[in-house]
Amino acid sequence: MVSMTNKALTSEPPSGGRHWFKYASPQMFFPLAGKMIPLFSLAGVILTIVGLYIGFMVAPTDHQQGEAYRIIFVHVPAAWLSMFIYIVMAFWAGIGLAFNTRLSSMMASALAPTGALFTFLALWTGALWGKPTWGAWWVWDARLTSELILLFLYIGFMALQASIDDPRRADKAGAVLALVGVVNVPIIYFSVQWWNTLHQGSSINMTKAPSMATTMLLGMLVMALALWAYAIAVALYRARCIMLERERHTEWVKKYMENQA
Asked: Is the residue at 80 inside a domain?
């Protein structure tokens, strides 16, 4: 009876909210991330093929911008992800700063390069779209400028963490910068409403019907899902690398490396 009682006290609950808290440990999250990476990678490849096919082969030609508009099937989802990833990165960094959780800070560090990539992609594709539309590769438009600032925030976050040898101090310093930089995200989103800018307004509004053809909207949403899948897969892969580096002195990492040898 005593042994059964002790076993009941030490066993983890089979279900419920507390069951998921075990994945806050890098040791427990590491294998879960390894299982999720192939799934999101495959989804990303399939969705990218489908989205590009719809956007470049099926969607009709725009009556005003011609074929040049097709860059939006990459530009708009990349811009969406650049802003949302920063919010998620700042969220994880803030959780790590407030509760001193290792995995939260690792996830923030893992998301930063992907967010910077999408921000650069949004700026680059925006320039390709702006040249035939505005007649210029770049203008100091409110949305373009605030998006450029977002890229600098990503780069600053990564540079600040890399400049500090102690990972815990680096996480705290990066978290402060990430949280301060969150104010730039609503500026990007609402810039076309707050200022008189060259950048066109949103074609998708939750309170209004879309101002584009259904095929165009479908292609854009599929591409957004494709970039989401890619972002999750790459962030999880990078997070696993960070875990192995930071936890290299722990027993579970040593055993994992022995099994991989």
From this structure: yes
